[in-house]
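Two quick folds needed for the group meeting slides. Do the first one here.
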Amino acid sequence: MTKATNITWHETAITKEERRVQNGHGSSVLWFTGLSGSGKSTIANAVSKELYRQGINEYVLDGDNVRHGLNRDLGFSEKDRNENIRRIGEVAKLFVDSGKIVTTAFISPFRADREQVRQLFEEAEFIEVFVDCPLEECEKRDPKQLYAKARRGEIKDFTGIDSPYEAPVKAEITIHSERSSVEESVTTILDYLRLQKII
């Protein structure tokens, strides 16, 4: 990929801080990570729905949905997974700059990729939410029948089967989705946002 050299960064007329003041709340990215079937998208959407109910500007970036559009040219090789996460990080940053709370639900299996995204944000803007669920439970749920296909060899490089998942070492929030309800998970996350004075 050739990098453009004849470009200049233009500062916007309205700052991120001004947008936050107008919105009446802070902005950040809730970066949900975990195995397929762990509950990332379900919890991310439930958080988004509750934020919306409270009048907070929010948006959800879901892994499958983004691969239907922006990242439809990417496969699941390690290189493509890296690029998938890089692009999402940049998009999430735009949402945070616009004064919104954005929730992202991506397996994002590699620590280095998640750390690279974290570096795009200011202190406390990147909130890693580890949806911790045992592989056995994720396989039992298997809502999209992906584990079954991976076990049969129909899907290659599937996280948790023949491609590794590197769990966060120090996530800001850890949700144990096999023993916490969606409602309890939402409460935990919103309590954290209040504690950090984001909402």
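Then this one, please, same format:
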Amino acid sequence: MKMISNFHNKLVMAGAMLAVCTTFAQAHQEAAAPVAGLNPLADKVRAANSRFLDVKAATSEGYAPIPCASGITGGAMGIHYVNGGYLKDDKIDIARPEAVMYEPMADGRLQLVAVEYITSKGPASLDGQLFNFNSAPNRYGLGEFYELHVWAWRGNPTGTFADMNPKVSCEHTMAPSQ
């Protein structure tokens, strides 16, 4: 009976130690998450394009808005401000994204959330990150193209380079004034 009691005590002690170690490991992971979640390309994109925090910078550089894009399963991309000249030149330049993306806010402001690089030449990559291929026909009415979203200003739980972001909404899009 004493042997069973000792075994039971050791088992309880081992379980307690495992729980403590697991708690410490989880706390360490949560504390390290922001550091581990940093993406060097997103950092470079943010540094090269922070001038677009004010949408006036986008319009002054020839970007024009297209309607807010929402996903059919939730999330959104926001309102794309697209530069037609950059779309046509097929060049990939970190400081000249083809589209700058804004989320419409309840107070009417537009908040910069991401940029998008687009080219018809591929396969394409930026700083080692491969672009996504979009075949034709597609929902945009374009020919085949390669695109890369970079969620540099809004975290995206589905990934820094995913198309849609569940943390972005088109809910506050203003109707065009008549």
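Slide caption for protein two: Residues 2-37 form the longest helix (36 residues).
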